[in-house]
Design goal:
Layout (H helix, E strand, L loop, with lengths): L5 H20 L4 H10 L4 H14 L14 H26 L5 H17 L6 H35 L1 H6 L5 H14 L2 H16 L13
Helix pairs in contact: 2-3, 4-5, 4-6, 5-6, 5-9, 6-9
Length: about 220
């Protein structure tokens, strides 16, 4: 029978710490983790010491930040409102100044992520990140659509007169179709950059703190 080497002991310790981390991520409390470790052959005093080390070095997320299914609907409402508000603000500024200020699209991402977290009661997690990203993209599209519609009205007034403009509606399927068909021509490289930043920011705000494995002594 081979003797236990320092390397194998270190590997065993790493496996135990990884197990503790996984249990913490799944929401198990200290007592439950200890019982499971003891059931696998770990002495009680060793289990207690390693669990305490894990909680000090990789504390679990605060309970009020843990994701709950009941947060989904409020998060979608918050993200939707942020998307509409951010998109309209961006569109209004573009129409008023005559310039599409790209970094405002980044702000749409900030609004989306913040709105999701606020309406979710401070909860965080992957589902809320997905909602925030979707809201950010929606907000950018709303801003683009608002700007496009304003430019389309000006063009229609010059080419066809005020009567045609009076019959146009922002919610018209025809206008929406023209917008979709024109998306490729409207998007520049800088637009893509600001959209990426908006999405990245929206993704990061509702991100839950990840637990990291404790380093071996």
């Amino acid at each position: 029978m081979e003797e236990n080497t320092p390397k194998s002991a270190e590997d065993a310790l790493h496996k135990i710490r990884t197990f503790i981390l996984k249990q913490m991520q799944e929401g198990a409390d200290k007592e439950t983790i200890k019982i499971r470790l003891m059931a696998s052959g770990v002495r009680e005093e060793v289990a207690v010491e390693l669990i305490e080390q894990a909680y000090v070095q990789s504390p679990p997320a605060p309970p009020d930040e843990e994701f709950k299914a009941g947060s989904l609907l409020p998060a979608m409402i918050g993200g939707g409102l942020a998307a509409v508000a951010g998109g309209l603000i961006w569109g209004l500024i573009a129409v008023t100044t005559g310039y599409e200020i790209g970094w405002i699209a980044w702000g749409v991402g900030v609004l989306a992520g913040t709105g999701v977290v606020m309406f979710a009661g401070g909860r965080k997690g992957l589902p809320l990140q997905l909602i925030a990203v979707t809201s950010a993209v929606l907000g950018v599209l709303i801003g683009k659509y608002f700007t496009f519609y304003s430019a389309l009205k000006e063009y229609a007034a010059e080419e066809f007169g005020a009567e045609v403009v009076a019959q146009m509606s922002m919610l018209s399927p025809g206008v929406a179709q023209i917008f979709v068909e024109s998306m490729g021509a409207m998007m520049s490289g800088f637009d893509a950059l600001w959209v990426i930043l908006a999405v990245g920011t929206a993704w990061g705000i509702p991100k839950a703190k990840a637990l990291q494995p404790a380093e071996a002594d």
